[in-house]
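Private note to self, pasted from the team thread so I don't lose it. Backbone tokens:
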């Protein structure tokens, strides 16, 4: 932005007048940064949090007298305005000033030690600093000095700030922790990956402010937490506003970086800020990881959430409709709804003065482009407390999030005339588990009951009825319970191993039942979309009355491996018919991948040389081609991210890669390494350094 210096009247641009000229301005970074919990930011300027005092020392060319009048001025944006809060005048003594409080702590000869307290609702961003001195001809201001610029952030430590979070351990985790764990996989087979948020790394704070500039968000709105979050949710994806990340849920990543190859947010944000061009490519956990960095960098308490069996309903109701043909096979052409193995979004901890009492606290925000909200691909903030009680009338996008965790799965059979007949309703499949990283630990914390009451409880029924009253229709199909049920069981399995599927039929009637069944197997994207079909097997089972029968099916490596590509998830479905009923069940198998070994050597001390070693052994009888290895550690590696490529890794061969680094920050630090190649899903490893 062009710089702006306010003058009451034109004055010569020469030496300062001798009657009280400013010799220097000291922003007192060694004192202010620790007090504001901003010492970790790798930046040459002062970083402070609003609603909390900071110290400035102004040195004059002589000792001030009682009659001397001066003020500090803080300007933000290209057209600062006092009535919009972007031109802040801080006065000292009895003269009225702005909402920022000023106080002279003491005089040390010609140096004035000043205490300034920004308003708890002040605009967030980068300010320019000036000192203005009253002279006979008006006010004489200091010239532009970039070293006195300061960054003002939200303040989770200030009770008057809308992001205040009272628990110190939660502030440490959700604002100050620059690495985290994102949970993936499938319900019952949860996997995880370490993600480097890196909100304190060099250039990241400027990149986050650049995102707000690129959105053309008015400067005077940047102190409003709700408006800023909604802008951020829209700008992290590039769907309709040239934002940060391009989503890609295909197998073709030739024009960019595969989503599974990223190690963290830093490289993505710096690339976007340096080029102004959206970065390719992302899927939901990448959107959530980068959004989490954006939020924590600006001082907003935030965490990444994983919802397993997450419904994506396209019709705005509480029904996820799965349609099958008369022979029991899925009717993909007419099925519009989908169930994701998991979906990642974010939560922010903020006050909601726009909502009734009790609906503040954790709020859902989602940057993955799924549906539009007020014309942009974004979601939230939606109150978690409101979602739990079915109060989906409140802004923003509460109904969409409510459906993601509460939809009923309705199985329909489509006859030759196109008529749909429901034959099964599963009320427990969607939102079966919702988790996030624990405080101070890499273990998951189950927060399912933050979002919903126990299935079938009286509170749950009242919640569903209330949501329907607010316009979210639920399923009321009259489906009779069949006498035969079916379930599938399988153990965890590594990629390249045979899969044993135990299919168990239970007959609750007194009569013998014959089931004509079909077992189908597909490779799926984690969004539930079919990538490749690889198995279809018809079989029959005779089940005596009041008995159960098991069938064990073997899915060999040779059946699924040629179709796998870079997807680690297999979807198995059993559909069947008795003389009176249809039945079905489904199971997602998330294949475990080979291990990546990571070791760190050297004395763990700040600015002391250390060595990281990553090694990998190809366990398969086929070669891995175009292998990409990357390594990152927030506060550890100055270059933020290292990468290396292998054109070929032969079967059973071992490769090793070493990098030197010198830690920048003390405390517990993590490093993460990722191996990616087109014919194998992600392989990751992380290591604690301190």
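Design output:
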């Amino acid at each position: 932005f062009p710089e702006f210096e306010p003058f009451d009247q034109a004055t010569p641009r020469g030496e300062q007048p001798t009657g009280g000229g400013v010799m220097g301005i000291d922003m007192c970074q060694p004192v202010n940064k620790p007090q504001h919990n901003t010492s970790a930011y790798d930046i040459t300027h002062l970083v402070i949090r609003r609603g909390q005092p900071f110290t400035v020392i102004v040195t004059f060319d002589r000792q001030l007298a009682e009659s001397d009048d001066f003020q500090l001025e803080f300007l933000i944006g290209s057209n600062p305005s006092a009535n919009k809060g972007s031109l802040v005048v801080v006065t000292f003594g009895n003269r009225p000033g702005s909402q920022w409080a000023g106080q002279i702590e003491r005089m040390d000869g010609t140096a004035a030690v000043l205490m300034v307290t920004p308003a708890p609702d002040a605009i967030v961003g980068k300010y320019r600093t000036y000192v203005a001195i009253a002279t006979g001809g008006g006010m004489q201001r200091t010239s532009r000095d970039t070293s006195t610029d300061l960054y003002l952030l939200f303040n989770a430590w200030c009770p008057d700030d809308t992001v205040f979070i009272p628990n110190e351990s939660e502030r440490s985790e959700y604002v100050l922790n620059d690495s985290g764990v994102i949970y993936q996989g499938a319900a019952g087979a949860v996997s995880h990956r370490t993600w480097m948020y890196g909100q304190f790394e060099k250039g990241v704070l400027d990149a986050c402010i650049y995102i707000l500039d690129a959105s053309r968000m008015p400067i005077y709105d940047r102190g409003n937490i709700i408006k800023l979050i909604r802008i951020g949710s829209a700008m992290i994806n590039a769907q309709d506003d040239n934002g940060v990340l391009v989503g890609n849920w295909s197998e073709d990543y030739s024009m960019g970086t595969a989503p599974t190859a990223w190690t963290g947010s830093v490289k993505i944000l710096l690339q976007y800020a340096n080029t102004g061009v959206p970065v390719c490519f992302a899927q939901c956990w990448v959107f959530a990881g980068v959004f989490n960095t954006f939020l924590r960098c600006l001082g907003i308490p935030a965490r990444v959430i994983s919802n397993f069996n997450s419904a994506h309903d396209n019709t705005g109701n509480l029904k996820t409709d799965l349609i099958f043909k008369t022979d029991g096979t899925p009717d993909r052409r007419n099925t519009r709804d989908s169930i994701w193995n998991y979906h990642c979004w974010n939560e922010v901890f903020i006050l909601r003065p726009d909502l009734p009492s009790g609906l503040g606290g954790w709020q859902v925000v989602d940057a993955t482009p799924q549906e539009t909200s007020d014309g942009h691909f974004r979601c939230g903030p939606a109150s978690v407390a409101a979602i739990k009680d079915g109060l989906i009338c409140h802004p923003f996008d509460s109904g969409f999030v409510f459906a993601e965790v509460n939809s009923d799965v309705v199985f329909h059979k489509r006859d030759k005339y196109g008529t749909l007949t429901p034959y099964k309703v599963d009320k427990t499949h969607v939102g079966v588990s919702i988790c996030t990283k624990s405080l101070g630990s890499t273990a998951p914390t189950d927060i399912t009951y933050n979002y919903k009451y126990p299935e079938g409880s009286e509170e749950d029924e009242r919640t569903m009825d209330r949501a329907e009253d607010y316009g979210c229709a639920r399923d009321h199909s009259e489906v009779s319970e069949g006498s035969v049920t079916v379930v599938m069981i399988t153990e965890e399995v590594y990629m390249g191993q045979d899969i044993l599927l135990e299919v168990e039929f239970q007959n609750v009637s007194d009569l013998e039942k014959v089931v004509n069944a079909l077992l189908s197997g597909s490779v799926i994207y984690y969004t539930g979309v079919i990538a490749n079909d690889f198995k279809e097997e018809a079989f029959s089972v005779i089940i005596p009355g009041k008995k159960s029968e098991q069938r064990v099916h073997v899915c060999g490596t040779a059946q699924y491996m040629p179709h796998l590509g870079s997807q680690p998830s297999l979807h198995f479905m059993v559909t069947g018919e008795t003389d009176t009923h249809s039945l079905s069940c489904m199971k997602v198998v998330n294949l475990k991948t080979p291990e990546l070994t990571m070791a760190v050597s050297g004395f763990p001390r700040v600015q002391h040389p250390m060595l990281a070693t990553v090694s990998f052994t190809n366990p398969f009888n086929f070669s891995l081609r175009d292998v990409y290895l990357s390594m990152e550690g927030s506060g550890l590696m100055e270059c933020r991210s290292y990468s290396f490529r292998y054109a070929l890794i032969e079967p059973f061969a071992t490769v090793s890669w070493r990098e030197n680094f010198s830690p920048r920050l003390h405390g517990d630090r993590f490093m993460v390494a990722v191996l990616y190649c087109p014919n194998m899903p992600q392989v990751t490893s992380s290591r604690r350094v301190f």
